[in-house]
Amino acid sequence: MSQSNDKWSAEAYSKAAGFVPKLTTTVISYLSAQPTDKILDIGCGDGPLTAQIAASIPQGHILGLDASASFIQTAQENHTSQNCNFKLQDCRRIAECAEAVDGSWDKVFSNAALHWILREPSTRDAVFKDVYSALKPGGIFVFEMGGKGNVEAVHSTILSVLVANGYALSTARESCPWFFPSDTWMTRQLQKTGFEVEKCELEYRPTKCTPKSADGSGGLEGWIKLMGAEMLSVVEESKREDVVRQVCDVLETVVTREEDGSQYLNYVRLRAVARKA
Ligand SMILES: C[S@@+](CC[C@H](N)C(=O)[O-])C[C@H]1O[C@@H](n2cnc3c(N)ncnc32)[C@H](O)[C@@H]1O
């Protein structure tokens, strides 16, 4: 990711989506980290989850890879334990990182990142092949990502608002940064790569938005600005705030709960455990 394309900042992420590294009890239980495990974390972000895993593998080691220079810098500053390292790497091309694909890893882990990494159809096979190469025989690939139907209302609303503002549907679709596959697609893809699929499941998990900040960096608005940055980038800068407002206005009654005014996004998580034969 070039510096100019790097939308991530640890501050905006924690205000708009601080729940992402926290809502991980199930995928962490599937990882079942053992004290000596050597684990590769794909799309580690600013590293709180990577550091949490590092603490559970005192004689092991974890390497976090991410394409955001800003996130990798924050991760390196905040998480300095000896068995936890971070490296700037576009994970569409993991093989560029020789130590990552040397076949020595017990586990490859990923949380909330593969739906970005797998966006481009042409690079998908290579990602799975590289993860397979990274693992020892018998090693496991454990991940959670957005699955079919994830944040469907937000996704459709942004597309519709872009079209209502004069952008072609094809342009709006092209700008979407996510790939949310079904469990059927994922099972086939893992099997095609050579993995034995032990689990592959979808979970519907409505998720409460963070509180809205005065500067627009949290809440529904903050989520749309951060996670939907690529889709908003088709709009000229002077009109972007207005488009965000239109998206929030449409979503208001869809995502707000009557009992207390809280707002929920309908997350759908796709989780899998796949073993290298
Ligand atoms: C929602 S964050 C999740 C971060 C972290 N795993 C967590 O649970 O908090 C998504 C991450 O995917 C990373 N990402 C997106 N595309 C990527 C790519 N092509 N290669 C590596 N990382 C990528 C982003 O930089 C970001 O850190």
UniProtKB/TrEMBL annotation:
This is S-adenosyl-L-methionine-dependent methyltransferase. InterPro entries: Methyltransf_25, SAM-dependent_MTases_sf. PANTHER family: TRANS-ACONITATE 2-METHYLTRANSFERASE, TRANS-ACONITATE 2-METHYLTRANSFERASE-RELATED. It comes from the Eukaryota. CDD domains: AdoMet_MTases. GO terms for biological process: methylation. Residues 39-139 form the Methyltransferase domain. Gene3D superfamilies: Vaccinia Virus protein VP39. It holds the Pfam family Methyltransf_25. It comes from Aureobasidium namibiae CBS 147.97. Keywords: Methyltransferase, Transferase. One of its GO terms (molecular function) is methyltransferase activity.
